[in-house]
Design brief:
Elements (H helix, E strand, L loop, with lengths): L6 H29 L5 H29 L6 H34 L8 H31 L5 H10 L2 H10 L4 H12 L7 E4 L2 E8 L3 E6 L4 E5 L2 H4 L3 E2 L7 E9 L5 H13 L9 E7 L5 E9 L2 H22 L24 H9 L7 H11 L13
Helix pairs in contact: 1-2, 2-3, 3-4, 4-5, 4-7, 9-10
Length: 393
């Protein structure tokens, strides 16, 4: 039975497609939720894919209805091309939402809200990079497919599709330095050198890795600034990663005190300070004298904590409590600068007599008086001189 190609039939087909899309979407949502009633992933799937799936289904049904009922005319190829482009774009959108759903499921299994979360942070970083890479490939394929719908742009579309291949990606990375960040981002994800939520020191700044993309890395600094670095920075520049193996850290608190300080009393006070705080993880507690020059004694305290923020708070707490104790219980230990002031004239009456000094000096010399000349003659003896008679000249 042939379907009439009239505008009335077109309107009926449009309304029918809209109703069918709503009904099918509702049925699919009910089936998904019923299948995973005791699990969390069905709600996440519905939340991510409901809107793109509904629009995609509506466009496909409209395309079928329009193709069957729209009156014949010169505009029909244009309408078909528009529906094809919309279908490709919406299909890419739906695939991207499914990728985000898979990301949500993976991240829900590996949370980072616990102290020892190194494995979770590594998997989280890899999942984020893979999701972004997959979405980039889908978008490139969609753009290439859309360009192929235009007869004059088929060559361009073919080249775009070819660029999504692995060989073309490697060639592009070798030929264009601007794409080197993409390869660096993938290297970061799978080399495990840096992960999301890692504590790092970059450009002499302390912060946490907030986001890792294919081309750049965002570092959340301690004062709420964001430092954006290219991915190649972490593959070509040295940086400090404080949570590479574990989040537990050791920190130091130093004091320059007076020589009258009593280290054993400070050590006892340190034990009392750490006993009344939960910031210390009870692994290391050391107080040592590391230097004693320049008029000061350097005291170094080593303590440990479960992570970098807790360690910073613990160091501040120990420093504050120890300063209060020094002022209250050991003021003699506070650093001092000693200066000796001399205001009186020198007492010349205590100096030795000049004559006696000269006599003492002369007693050891070989000139200056008769005794000295006699001592000299004992060493040199009389000097013989030749006598010449004038008559013999």
């Amino acid at each position: 039975m042939a379907i009439e190609r009239t505008w009335t039939a077109f309107a009926v087909a449009t309304v029918s497609a809209l109703v069918a899309a709503l009904v099918v979407t509702a049925l699919v949502a009910l089936i998904v939720r019923a299948a995973g009633r005791r699990r969390r992933w069905p709600n996440a799937l519905v939340r991510r894919a409901r809107i793109p799936f509904r629009i995609f289904l509506l466009v496909v049904l409209l395309w079928i209805g329009v193709d069957l009922t729209i009156p014949v005319g010169d505009y029909q190829p244009v309408v078909d091309q528009l529906f094809l482009i919309a279908t490709i774009a919406l299909g890419a959108w739906l695939v991207c939402m499914l990728a985000m759903f898979l990301e949500d499921v993976a991240l829900a299994r590996y949370t980072i809200d616990r102290p020892d979360n190194r494995i979770a942070r590594r998997l989280r970083t890899q999942v984020l990079i893979l999701r972004r890479l997959g979405m980039a490939v889908v978008i490139v394929l969609a753009i290439g497919a859309i360009l192929l719908t235009f007869p004059g742009a088929q060559a361009v579309g073919t080249s775009v599709l070819a660029s999504a291949g692995l060989v073309s990606i490697i060639a592009g990375l070798a030929a264009q330095s601007t794409l080197s960040n993409v390869f660096a981002g993938m290297q970061i994800a799978f080399s495990d050198a840096v992960r999301v939520d890692d504590v790092v020191i970059v450009e002499e700044e302390w912060g946490r890795i907030e986001e890792i993309t294919l081309t750049y890395v965002v570092v959340h600094l301690w004062d709420d600034r964001r430092l954006v670095l290219p991915s190649t920075y972490f593959t070509s520049q040295p940086f400090q990663n404080w949570t590479r193996r574990t989040s537990e850290l050791l920190g130091a608190v130093e004091f320059d005190l007076d020589w009258r300080v009593t280290p054993h009393e400070m050590r006892e006070e340190l034990d009392r300070i750490l006993a009344r705080t939960d910031l210390w993880d009870k692994r290391v507690s050391v107080l040592q004298v590391t230097d004693a020059v320049g008029g000061y004694v350097r005291i170094r305290i080593l303590v440990t904590a479960v992570d970098a923020p807790t360690l910073f708070d613990l160091r501040c707490f120990v420093r504050e409590e120890m300063i209060v104790w020094l002022h209250r219980e050991s003021p003699q230990s506070l650093p001092k600068s000693r200066v000796r002031m001399v205001d009186e004239e020198p007492d010349i009456s205590r100096r030795p007599a000049p004559g006696a000094k000269r006599g003492q000096e002369a007693s050891g010399l070989f000139h200056g008086d008769v005794g000295a000349e006699g001592r000299a003659s004992l060493f040199t003896g009389p000097i013989q001189t030749a006598h010449v008679d004038p008559d013999e000249r």
